[in-house]
């Protein structure tokens, strides 16, 4: 019998870890209203804790690979899950809003940020050569899978047993994965005396040292280009119109219209189902259609759907709402494959590093939207203006994406040296080579 390659075991454990970390991603939307009812804190105050979490999640992600390179994948992943468990569990004894900021914002933000895209990229980069893209896609779907699992469960628990039991459930779920991490996860294939799946040699030197310095250099050089700011601006709006607004406030907004919290949580979980389908379809389209056109279309259609949402929110999940869930779910993270492709196109080998910073802008936009929508609800008594504002921003993101046509392939950045090399210089070199060949023919 052929033995299963250890890389598949590592990938399976990684997937479970991502699901455990994703448990908290479903928590704010489910517990926002119960915390407001018990403590009397404004939705703006509670949303501010979510904003801190989203911001730290984004800022930690670019450095996750550096942390794992320095301390090891297993240690960082285990520590991250412990932070998620502690941040969710300690809320059981909180009595002040600053304690919510510390638990939900700081502890869980650092924990989930360490298990973001950097974690996935490190695992697939070290353990897979063959099927690396497939495994990356499956692991990226771990977050959506976590939402599918936890949203209905937490909503039902919060409704029947209270928000503390729901928070404890997330804490225990994250904690239970830690022993599995230490048992089956390894830093390098060489630790088990094997090669990466589909690779040759069992070298341990798969990740460059000084990853944090490389990340900062990548940001410095990318920030000098117009393309980076267009991509970062569009992705910041993407975060604001997904995680920050819908992911955090859809359930309380639906509750305002008389919809039961369990029903609203089920609809949000359904978004995750179509999210997976939309992401796979978007990856297929990215290989066939210009990514700028895809982004422009995705953001424009998302803007239209958000502009329509206030008029279809009701106490029941009527057909129009189900159409919105289907349409919006397909579009949720469909922006990721074309954005990754454009980062590679504009910044060459440094594309993954630059995407890490573009992703940070995504979470920055999400953090602003999470707080802003809560303040809108507190001041105006409804989320209507938040939906309209998000719809307008999404249409603006569509324009920013199409503006990328004006600056195609401006610069390529070397991730090792942090140098910006103009494409024009390469063309000049090619002309000189041609001149040398002509001279040789004449001779």
TrEMBL record:
Gene Ontology terms for molecular function: transmembrane transporter activity
Cellular compartments annotated: Cell membrane
Membrane topology classification: Multi-pass membrane protein
Domain annotation Major facilitator superfamily (MFS) profile: ranges: 9-409
Transmembrane regions: 42-64, 76-93, 99-121, 133-154, 166-183, 227-251, 263-285, 385-406
GO CC terms of this entry: plasma membrane
Principal cellular location given in the protein's record: membrane
Keywords: Membrane, Transmembrane, Transmembrane helix
One Pfam family of this chain: MFS_1
Top-level taxon of origin: Bacteria
Protein known as: Putative MFS transporter
Organism listed in the record: Actinoplanes missouriensis (strain ATCC 14538 / DSM 43046 / CBS 188.64 / JCM 3121 / NBRC 102363 / NCIMB 12654 / NRRL B-3342 / UNCC 431)
């Amino acid at each position: 019998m052929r033995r299963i390659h250890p890389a598949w075991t590592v990938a399976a454990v990684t997937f479970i870890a991502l699901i455990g970390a994703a448990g908290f991603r479903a928590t704010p939307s489910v517990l926002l209203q119960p915390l407001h009812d018990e403590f009397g804190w404004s939705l703006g105050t509670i949303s501010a804790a979510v904003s801190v979490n989203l911001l730290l999640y984004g800022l930690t992600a670019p450095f996750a690979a550096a942390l794992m390179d320095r301390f090891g994948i297993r240690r960082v992943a285990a520590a991250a899950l412990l932070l998620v468990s502690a941040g969710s569990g300690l809320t059981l004894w909180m009595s002040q809003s600053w304690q919510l900021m510390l638990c939900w914002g700081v502890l869980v933000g650092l924990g989930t940020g360490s298990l973001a895209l950097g974690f996935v990229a490190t695992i697939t980069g070290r353990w897979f050569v063959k099927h690396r893209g497939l495994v990356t896609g499956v692991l990226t779907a771990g977050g959506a899978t976590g939402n599918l699992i936890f949203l209905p469960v937490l909503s039902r628990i919060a409704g029947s047993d209270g928000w503390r039991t729901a928070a404890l459930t997330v804490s225990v779920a994250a904690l239970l994965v830690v022993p599995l991490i230490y048992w089956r996860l390894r830093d390098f294939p060489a630790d088990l005396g094997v090669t990466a799946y589909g690779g040759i040699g069992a070298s341990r030197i798969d990740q460059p040292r000084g990853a944090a310095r490389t990340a900062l250099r990548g940001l410095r050089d990318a920030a000098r280009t117009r393309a980076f700011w267009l991509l970062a601006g569009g992705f910041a709006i993407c975060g604001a119109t997904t995680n920050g607004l819908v992911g955090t406030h859809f359930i309380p907004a639906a509750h305002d219209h008389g919809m039961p919290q369990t029903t609203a949580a089920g609809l949000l979980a359904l978004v995750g189902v179509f999210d997976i389908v939309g992401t796979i379809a978007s990856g297929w389209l990215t290989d066939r259609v210009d990514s700028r056109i895809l982004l422009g279309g995705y953001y424009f259609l998302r803007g239209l759907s958000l502009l329509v949402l206030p008029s279809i929110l009701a106490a029941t999940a009527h057909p129009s709402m189900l159409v919105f869930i289907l349409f919006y779910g397909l579009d949720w993270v469909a922006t990721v494959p074309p954005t990754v492709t454009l980062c590679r196109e504009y910044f060459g080998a440094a594309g993954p590093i630059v995407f890490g910073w573009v992703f940070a802008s995504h979470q920055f936009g999400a953090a602003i939207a999470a707080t802003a929508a809560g303040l809108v609800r507190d001041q105006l008594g409804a989320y209507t203006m938040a939906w309209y504002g998000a719809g307008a921003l999404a249409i603006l993101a569509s324009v920013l994406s199409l503006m990328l046509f004006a600056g195609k392939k401006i610069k390529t950045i070397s991730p090792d040296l942090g140098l910006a090399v103009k494409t024009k210089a390469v063309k000049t070199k090619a002309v000189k080579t041609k001149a040398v060949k002509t001279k040789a023919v004449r001779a």
